[in-house]
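Most newcomers find our protein records easier to grasp once they have seen one. Sequence and backbone structure share a record, each on its own labelled line. Nothing more is needed to start thinking about how sequence determines fold. As an example, a complete record with its sequence and its structure tokens follows.
=====
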Amino acid sequence: MTAFAARRLSLPLPLLVGLAAVAWLVAWFANLPAANWIAFELIGLEPGTHVGEAVAFFVYDVPKVLLLLTGVVWLVSFIRSFVSPDRVRQALAGRGAVPGTVAAAGFGVITPFCSCSAVPLFIGFVEAGVPLGTTFAFLVASPMVNEVALVLLWGVFGPGLALAYMAAGLAIAIVAGLVIGRLRMERYVEDYVWAVRATGGIVDERPTPDERVREAWRSTVDIVRRVWPFVVAGIAVGALIHGFVPTDLVVSVGGRDNPLAVPALVALGVPLYSNAAGTIPIVEALLGKGLPLGSALAFMMAITALSVPELVILRRVMKPRLLATFVAVVAAGILAVGYGFNLFLS
């Protein structure tokens, strides 16, 4: 509910937050029976059929994912209002290579930025004096592993897979940052980036609780508005896979018997564009069809960390050699995760 609606209803903001939380819980628990009723009673589809299962999957997953997305983004945005971005950048700039890289990767996990934020974030980190390797650790971790993806994975697959995914993504981000930092490739950053000067940063204010709540809601609306089409598109693809794609076809391409399954899926994921939230429904459907876990995670990571649109955006601040190095290091990490998960969790 917007701040305007809060004023119009003349209700205390804590009460409105409580009512919103109750409404969220009611919608969450009513989602599954409502989806089954819509697919099999209202529309009249037959359970167990390709169309019926695809529609039921879609009708159930769209509200489920959007509810998780809205709830967790609001909560993280509210918590993040207590942390000054300038202080974070200063803290990263003042650390050594390894602690700074680890901290940057961890910061990337709790920031729901997408590729459209890559350029200003890259410039801001470089301008603040953050080492290049540390900056790359953040750039890898932020789209690949974020709090939205973790909550969705936790809700869909349980804590084990969510934590394993987070550990794998953090490992890739940290290794990528350390490798790129050791290569000392600052000269391959576009020249205009080094010419950027600070233009007044964010003032370290102390907003009131009401201001924090309202700002968190505005941030949530903005993020969800940019993300939801990709979430719905991902769920639509997942529904088609869930209902129509034969298991044998998926297993033949990405199964354990194919030694090139992981690189094939990584190559397939690069031309696509989505965020971690949008890929989870696809991964859910693919796992249900028998795709090995490592192959599915490699596909997901390629979409979120190596998508063509993000690389095009990053080209604005990186020269080709640095961009190619970034792609090579991240791709190697994703392949290692894919093969490693398939080997040890088979």
